[in-house]
Design brief:
about 230 residues; Fumarylacetoacetate hydrolase, domain 2; 6-stranded mixed beta sheet; globular; binds manganese (II) ion
């Protein structure tokens, strides 16, 4: 096949302890999925069904990368999240069957240009410029569920230059991973290669040029990203 402009390479992530790769198709993200984070953003966590936004697949950057401070923002925020890697697709997947569709798990940072997101919220505009920018989706290698099972309780944390900023447990998700997959697959047909950033706990805040974010979910992985 002859492409008339250079074709983008597919985005892939390592699979832990192998030379295999996980091909990334789409990146879905859940908004406000921990009660204290919903409250810190000015919302009532009890009255909101889950909602979703997307990042482009090529916004994925592997752990260990240095990222240039993004364009057009003065308020870049970190959001540490458990990431779900879909292995088998489907539509209208029931929560009871949802984990059969999961290939594995990873740890991601939902980087956010909070100033642009705030402006979009105020104007009733889409969130793409706040959420879907270049290099907005750092992510670790995928750890297969065949190795670690399906974590429902584990510490999730993020530190900036060694100082803990987010510290919670994935058992505090408002919508569990199976429930999230049930909702999401009623809106889009999930496919192998889809990633789901499952939402962030409280404590989000800015990261500056020269600072290094480290974070993790116990039993899943640890991520490190420096902003340059
Ligand atoms: Mn998020």
């Amino acid at each position: 096949m002859n492409f008339v402009v250079p074709a983008a390479l597919p985005t892939t992530l390592e699979v832990t302890d192998t030379t295999d790769r996980f091909p990334v198709r789409r990146v879905y993200c859940v908004g406000r999925n921990y009660a204290e984070h919903a409250r810190e953003m000015g919302h009532d966590p009890d009255r909101e069904p889950p909602f979703f936004f997307c990042k482009p697949a090529d916004a994925i950057v592997p752990s260990g990368s240095e990222i240039a401070y993004p364009l057009a923002t003065q308020n870049l925020h970190f959001e540490i999240e458990l990431v779900v890697a879909i292995g088998t697709g489907g539509t209208h997947i029931k929560a009871a069957d949802a984990l059969d569709h999961v290939y594995g798990y990873a740890v991601g940072i939902d980087l956010t240009r909070r100033d642009l997101q705030g402006e979009a919220k105020k104007m009733g505009r889409p969130w793409d410029s706040g959420k879907g920018f270049d290099q907005a989706a750092p992510c670790t290698a995928i750890r297969p569920a065949s190795q670690i099972g399906h974590p429902s309780s584990a510490r999730i944390w993020l530190a900036v230059d060694g100082k803990i900023r987010q510290d919670s447990d994935i058992d505090r998700l408002i919508w569990s991973i199976p429930e999230t997959i049930e909702h999401l697959s009623g809106l889009w047909t999930l496919q192998p290669g889809d990633l789901i950033y499952s939402g962030t706990p409280a404590g989000v805040g800015p990261v500056e040029k020269g600072e290094t974010m480290t974070g993790g979910v116990d039993g899943v992985g640890e991520i490190e990203i420096k902003i340059t």
